[in-house]
Amino acid sequence: xxxxxxxxxxxxxxxxxxxxxxxxxxxxxxxxxxxxxxxxxxxxxxxxxxxxxxxxxxxxxxxxxxxxxxxxxxxxxxxxxxxxxxxxxxxxxxxxxxxxxxxxxxxxxxxxxxxxxxxxxxxxxxxxxxx
Length: 131
What we know:
Oligomer: single chain
Number of domains: 1
Number of strands: 7
Mean pLDDT: 96
Strand content: 35-45%
């Protein structure tokens, strides 16, 4: 089986918003986020020594929750306090017929992993995911 890499990117006015947008991009790799109803809330916490690793942890925790709960998410809320992320994801049970998942994401990687603020104050959160 061949692994394919797909880049995801979140852009926002804050780091938290960029993380939320990266999570939407993660869902968009699988299916159209607009077709996923935010019916059930799942709490997520993770910790990492820096913001780049925190992004990878956040995305990998979402992937884990999708796999174990057989869910897909479309709405996200993130709060970051230094090295600790507290988040919420809203979604529903995956329906193969309705959601038509294109791929299964295996995990977030450190390839092109970046969390930064540009000269305009806009935040970028990106990495490559294995599918």
